[in-house]
Amino acid sequence: MKTIIYFLLLCITISLQAQDQKLENTLLWKISGNDLKQPSYLYGTIHITCDATLSPKIIKALDETSQLYLELDMDDPNMQMDMMKGIMMKDGITIKSLLSEEEYNLVNSFIKEELGMSLDMMNTMKPFLVGSMFYMKMLDCPMQSFEEELMKVSKAQDEEIYGLETVDEQLAVFDAIPYKLQAKDLVRSAKDKLTYDKEYFQKMLDLYSKEDLNALMLMMDDDTFESTANFNDELVVKRNKNWISKIERISKEEPTFFGVGAGHLGGKEGVIILLRQEGYKLTPILN
């Protein structure tokens, strides 16, 4: 179930904000100023990858902070149960009711081929989350997670792990996007057997490994993913704005390492700019 949770989280990261100004090529930023007694750090993660080795600069930032905040509290024992409560569509809607018989059969055959299960078993799930299960097919290597690695270090340092939002808050995003559009993307992925999705994901991994935050931001111009292209406010912007007051409060209480999807960092309404607008100094950590 933890693996599936990471797939669901990845979906949110893929929808990225347009950028208004260029940022330095790094995913790690120091938060200081505004009378903070000690700096905190902001780090852009990618939720599944082939190599989640933490660089020395990340380890150093973890050493200089005393707690870890991720998007979700990933070590919460109730997380899996909460996740199961939020994956179903509302009002009795089913995937079968959103698709033609031909489309449903196409997606069903593809899911059987790729995942070894019938779409009937997932008929009431939000289509976006069904599609996220394909991400296990995107990697040609054993899956690793930066969140897992960050948590390992924090636990070894006997530090607490928290979340900026709840599972309910995160999964509610997928109710704001029309289920019909989500189902349409599911059909698109099945039609070309993930060819485009794999190319897109590999490009994202390559840019992430280069810490090219600006190029990652530009990937949002791709409107192939219809269910996310027009809902950036719900997927990213509103969540960013909700996090700012929390990051401020938490950073004032004690030095904290914040790890959120890289897609939340850049852009005129990204976390970096929003914190700067509140008077904080965001310094790029290059090495």
Automatic annotation (TrEMBL):
Keywords per UniProt: Glycoprotein, Hydrolase, Membrane, Metal-binding, Metalloprotease, Protease, Signal, Transmembrane, Transmembrane helix
InterPro entries in the record: TIKI1/2-like, TraB/PrgY/GumN_fam
Cofactor annotation: Co(2+); Mn(2+)
Membrane topology: Single-pass type I membrane protein
Compartments, record wording: Membrane
Pfam families, per database record: TraB_PrgY_gumN
UniProt-listed CDD domains: Tiki
Coiled coil: none
Signal sequence, start to end: 1-18
Protein name, UniProt field: TraB/GumN family protein
